[in-house]
Amino acid sequence: MRLRTPRVTALLALVAGLxxxxxxxxxxxxxxxxxxxxxxxxxxxxxxxxxxxxxxxxATLVEILAHRVFGTRPAHSSxxxxxxxxxxxxxxxxxxxxxxxxxxxxxxxVPQDQVASVTKxxxxxxxxxxxxxxxxxxxxxxxxxTEFGAGYAAGQDRLWMIDLFRHxxxxxxxxxxxxxxxxxxxxxxxxPLAPYTEKDLQAQVDRIIATGGExxxxxxxxxxxxxDGLNAYREKSKSGRYFPGEYVLTxxxxxxxxQGEIEPFKLTDLxxxxxxxxxxxxxxGGGEVESALSLLAAQQKxxxxxxxxxxxxxxxxxxxxxxxxxxxxxxxxxxxKPETARGTAMxxxxxxxxxxxxxxxxxxxxxxxxxxxxxxxAKAPKDPVKAPRKLQPLQGMFNDGxxxxxxxxxxxxxxxNALLVSGKHTASGNPVAVFGPQTGYFAPQLLMLQELQGPxxxxxxxxxxGIGMYIQLGRGQDYAWxxxxxxxxxxxxxxxxxxxPDGSTPDKDSTHYRYRGACKPMEKLELRNAxxxxxxxxxxxxxxxxxxxxxxxxxxxHRATIDGKPxxxxxxxxxxxxxxxxxIGFQMLNDPGYVKDAKSFQRATEHVGYAFNWFxxxxxxxxxxNSGLNPVRAAGIDASLPVRGEKDYEWRxxxxxxxxxxxxxxxxxxxxxxxxxxxxxxxxxxxxxSSAGFGNGSVHRGDxxxxxxxxxxxxxxxxxxxxxxxxxxxxxxxxxxxDVLPELLKVLRSKxxxxxxxxDAVKKLESWRDAGAERRETAAGxxxxxxxxxxxxxxxxxxxxxxxxxxPGLGAGLYDALRANLPVDESPSAGHGPTGAHAGSSxxxxxxxxxxxxxxQVLGEPVKGRLTKTYCGNGDLSACRDTLLSSLRQAVTTxxxxxxxxxxxxxxxxxxxxxxIVHRAVGGIAHDAIHWQNRPTFQQVVEFPKHR
Length: 948
Description:
Strand content: 15-25%
Helix content: 25-40%
Largest sheet: 10 strands, mixed
Strand order of the largest sheet: 3-4-5-12-13-14-15-23-24-26
Distance between the termini: 42 Å
Structural class: alpha+beta
């Protein structure tokens, strides 16, 4: 937003003497008249994309202060919120011609009349930015120059964000950004997942060079050039005083003297950054100890055999009613239940304790708020620094942390969706795709848009800030690709027997373990963090020491006894020590000389070690491939439960020093070319490809896409607009209302509902169901839903009905144990997902399949993959109806201010606001709330009419 003259005068007076107010338009003087050279583009005008809130993620101290005082924002920092939000109201009348009202043209290059600025950070690269979005289009005459430009542009758009996340990756967030309890909680959750020393990080760089062939060497050369470009911008912005203002506010640079340092970036920082991205979106499996605890609870209640059957019915490894991405009947067996399990390491009941992480707390780290990682409402002690009057509006802006404290607390973080239709069913005869990642909503965004054109590189799309030497999700010259989190089981938990080197009797605290016949010491990894208050974070000074024990089978997470003998449970994931190996796959995806068709695309994604579902479209084919380092397990191993840490039960060809093993060959990964259509919303990939988590059954949010796209394909003539409408319609749907409410109403209506209050509630729920069970405004900007009472009742009723339906039959112990495996609900207003509340992504993890199957069993309807027992009313329809009515009565009388209790962004009782998407301010610029949508953060709409 442009400041009016009186405001400019006031602002300059306010910040006089602090820093240079605004960054220069170009780092090196250049006339914005030259056009960036466009590579061959076979998409015409039929490729589009969008990434809110805006491309520009940097703000100087002056810009941050102006935002806080006057509400202004830097150019291109929020200009994508409007069109992204407008799709809610605009989807019904959407046509191909109107797509550009909600998405931006993703063609290569910048037309001459649309050039906003040209920067030449060195002679062999040019960065051209367009007027509409400010996206950098990077054109290099050398490969090194291209990558240098990518790093430089990343600094221009995300310097603070990149610095923040490298410190998260190294477990050093509090010394960098402050000791807020949420910051403490975040680093305590992440560091144990990837506790690397600098030697460990360098070893990963060296291994890529040594084992990756010419592509590995080129990848690390590209990465170094990227780092060089990032450091070049870091140095220029610091000397020019147009660096991000957060460095001043967190005490790293003095506002007056410019003294202080923005620490140089190095190649090992990329490994740390990659570990954060992989930890959030690309890991799969884990949770074996928690699974064992719920299995024990089931066996204790029902006996060993029956309890195991009950547990398996809730586990739903391969539910026959689950929505599938590959639905043509192909089977890809992986990680299934063995006929006779070997080596399972079940703990003794009541013996499991979680490994202690934090020691030697001092100062603010000793408060109850700090010990809860910010989860408790108690406040950490504050010691505000003395702020200049001019900067007082910015004081304490990070008191609640720079990111949610529970960002890494749950292994259930799979997100993103994809819709693709093959040419046989489209109006043009060319495949159509609408796809993108749900990476949460941050300000600035974790992703950034860019175009890269140089020797061996030709692509446009999104890259995670700080590891953007290649496009990770986007388009090439005649093809486009995207991914969703797959989360197949690539992790195992091993129980190592504890011992003492002197032969004495060990206990659960022993730090030696038996490995291949020897009593071996665990490796102790330590990190000491200390912080002091800053202008941005007033949390009082404090410190602590984090400690992780590492065995040959990974890091210790729990301790227990098995048959009375002490053990430590160690978690081993196949991508540990291989955080950046996937760089070779991304390099291939950006290489037009490598990816020429669906099969070469699949070969490229074979080189991505993280668990992702990859989707591809060109003018001829749509295709799919599931990537990941799937370890080959020993015969008879149950991947859902802990395994004894013995050689007979290790991954095949396991080499602990570098964490390598035999992996399932590419042909055993779910894949397809030319299927009629593909959908993915983190649902099950294919028949017999076992789900890593619980509850992947008859109702999944993938059904919201599958039903809509399947209907489009049946009618034929699919267009970009019609497929986008299907996505947008699903983005407003309440999964419970669309796929479970019909069964609930059948039970309730099995007899007349005579209570007037309940009859009115049932009528409203029916009306909502008949209207599509959407959470949608009455009109654009009304901030009121079309069926507010029904939505409120459903939000209040769901957790009550689940407990009333299942807890009496399961018993409190087993019910609570299963809830630890799978949360009951994930409504839009709940605090979940990568940004906590207001995260957009909803309805992935919950008890929808359990309720659906149970009610259909009560109603006597056909059910494939039945629950072993029927729980609602113990299987009696009348008793089940009474149970549901009782819980509904409680829900109806729950006031809105209890259903939606309010938070920093919303008043209690404000339903629309409770659901709304709020971009989590990672820096100094915040954004307005927008309508809830359950859709990708970055999204592409593509249809290639031609091919090379």
